[in-house]
Write a structure and sequence with these properties.
Helices cover about 55% and strands about 0% of the residues. The protein is mostly helical. The chain has 2 domains: about 10-50; about 55-115, 434 Repressor (Amino-terminal Domain). Helix 1 packs antiparallel against helix 2 (about 30-50). It is elongated, with a radius of gyration of 21 Å.
């Protein structure tokens, strides 16, 4: 296959089909090199035409809690008392700078994700 930029949905589909055929090729082989380059072209196309939005701060916290097998009570003392943790996770209150710092440290979530705006639940 001649490698070229992916410029259309048709090119994208053909590239995916070709990558599926050569995916398990040895790394330093002709097909392995082609697979590596094709994967980069596909990734570039997907980043442009199929971007994945980062989750809002509360979703990011919930996702990481699930990954780390944490429960709400595990955040008590990190972002406040039991009721404060509930208010934050139920979108009734906003995260503060101190909470963001602690969550970044504990959950390893980038502060750039945690500072994003999110909708509060109306009372």
């Amino acid at each position: 296959m001649d490698l070229k930029p992916i410029k259309s949905e048709s090119d994208y589909q053909k590239s995916l089909e070709r990558l599926e055929v050569i995916f398990d090729a040895p790394i330093d082989s002709k097909d392995g090199d082609e697979a590596e380059i094709l994967a980069m072209l596909i990734e570039n196309y997907e980043n442009e035409y199929y971007p994945i939005e980062a989750p809002d701060p509360i979703e990011a916290i919930k996702i990481r809690m699930e990954e780390m097998n944490l429960r709400q009570k595990d955040l008590v003392g990190i972002i406040g008392g039991k009721s404060r943790v509930s208010e934050i996770l139920n979108r009734k209150k906003r995260l503060t700078v101190d909470m963001i710092r602690e969550l970044e440290r504990l959950l390893q979530i980038s502060a750039s994700v945690l500072v994003n705006n999110y909708q509060l639940v109306q009372k």
